[in-house]
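Per your request, structure below.
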């Protein structure tokens, strides 16, 4: 289990940890690296990987009634990435 967590850390050339890809599901250690924390970006808030879009913003819009496909179009991301962001926030709330 520890190895699964360590594989989700991205390091710079000197071996210093610079990013952590968060889990969005409880029981799947090989899940996609969609949500990340980078302390140098957005004060370390969880973001959709490859963007500066906070997962909390995506989740709030989804809770307000916007469809996954609509959010994917608005942000130029795939529906799967949007679903992972929402799933992460739901996991955090639980």
């Amino acid at each position: 289990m520890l190895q699964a967590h360590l594989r989700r850390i991205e390091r710079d050339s000197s071996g210093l940890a610079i990013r952590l890809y968060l889990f969005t599901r409880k029981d799947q250690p090989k899940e996609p690296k969609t949500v990340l924390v980078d302390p140098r970006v957005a004060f370390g808030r969880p973001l959709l990987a490859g963007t500066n879009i906070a997962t909390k913003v995506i989740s709030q819009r989804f809770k307000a009634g916007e469809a996954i496909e609509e959010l994917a179009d608005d942000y130029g991301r795939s529906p799967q990435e949007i679903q992972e962001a929402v799933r992460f926030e739901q996991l955090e709330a639980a």
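The chain has four helices and four strands.

Regards,
D.
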